[in-house]
Here is the input.
Amino acid sequence: MANLREEALKVDRFFWSDQKKSRCCSTPIGIGEHCWIRYLGNNSTDFNHERDMSNQEEDLAKFRASIDKDIGFQSIRTKLVVICLIFIALNLSGATLEEVNTFIFKININNHIGLSYFFLGVISFLFIRYYAYAYQYRVQLDKLWINRFINDYKIYNASFTQKHMSGLLSKALNFDIEDEPGLEFPEYERDGFYKRSLTYLRYSRDENGNDDSYIARISLTDFTNTKSWKLQNYLQMRKYELMYSIEAKFRYREYLDIFTPYLISAGALISFIFCDEIIEFMNTF
Here is the structure.
């Protein structure tokens, strides 16, 4: 593979030095890259896969750096987890707070029910703030595994220079990549539990003859566009999607970091509502 790259670089330099004589592709921009793909032949898929994996590792590293440096996110997460754990311990251990020492005075606590509702109010406030902080990271995490999913050659593989489309999702397309170059790099979108679609950049010309582009969408839940895309293909796609989603939950430690406060918050609420039942169940052991 390394020798092929070295030879491809030689071809790349040759075409850049004499673009007018080159007939490998019609556009001078990126001509070397196009010729490289053609020169590699059967190994182009392996090279593209290796390049995609490298890009995904870089994106993951940037994501981890951004989440580790987000002081506001880290602070809210810590406060939410600590308050929830204290509340769970108070509910399930039978312990009570008699007084709170401050730097100025002491507070005696007599209404323990009121204290419980106070904890619930604080937890609710911190939960809402944490949800807002964590939303962007949940979206980025989902995008990481969705990119891995759509880049799987069994799901979708396309090359404009080679005029080639293959994979499961290619059955949902009723036109060639020569007519829609943007299909070389589509985006996979999810809308709720059922709706799925492919979006890509479509090129056109306006009334004045100027180049224009817009986002086009292909519904993967519409089985009337092509005869080859059927419900069984959609279900097979969803099976692959589920596999990549489950794998990501264990592959990326950030999922545990982000979703653990949600689980602990739910545990705090359950410990308050079903406090007596849980204590009675624990006493049976």
User: Anything to note?
Assistant: The first strand starts at residue 99 and ends at 101.
